[in-house]
Amino acid sequence: MAEHKHGSMDTSVQEKTFDGFLKYVTWGAVASIGILIFAALVNG
């Protein structure tokens, strides 16, 4: 079994996945807030 060296793993795939997740969550939050504001203005 190979000896583990801390910090030697390639994490580029995980970083891309996390960046995509953050973009998805950000756009989801913006869309949700926009829908709530639109609903409040229409029901006004």
Globally, the shape reads rod-shaped
The biggest beta sheet, please?
A: none
Instruction: Quote the average pLDDT.
Output: 93
- The N- and C-terminal alpha carbons lie at a distance of 67 Å
**Overall helicity:** over 70%
Name the beta content range. under 5%
SS-based class: mainly alpha
User: What does the radius of gyration come to?
Assistant: 20 Å
What is the number of strand segments?
0
Q: Helical element count?
A: 1
List the uncertain runs.
none
Structure notes:
- By secondary structure, the chain is mainly α.
- The protein is 73% helix and 0% strand.
- The chain is built from one helix and no strands.
- It has one helix at 12-43.
- The chain starts with 11 loop residues before the first helix and ends with a helix.
- The mean pLDDT is 93.
